[in-house]
Hints:
Strand content: over 45%
Amino acid sequence: QVQLVESGGGLVQAGGSLTLSCAASGRTVSDYGMNWFRQAPGKERAFVAAINSNGASTYYADSVKARFTISRDNAKNMMYLQMNSLKPEDTAVYYCNAELPGSRRAWGQGTQVTVSS
């Protein structure tokens, strides 16, 4: 069983940067693709970025492309999201997930990111 814990959220001014971390425990996640999602108030959870198991392939939502960078360190069982040039519309709870066998997904509890204008 995989447990995921996000950290690194906070309050930042528009144009600023934050780095989110996702720590996995319970078993290694090095075999699994992983993703970041976010959920803004009153909106559905939305895809942000994806990374494959070895980190060689990444994919981004158009809204964050060229501003956010997803990465992972399999030796540490960690995943990251570097967020630059933040905008107020990036305000949301950010969640990480791991794509487990059998189409199952493990989710973290989320970390709040608030961008002030």
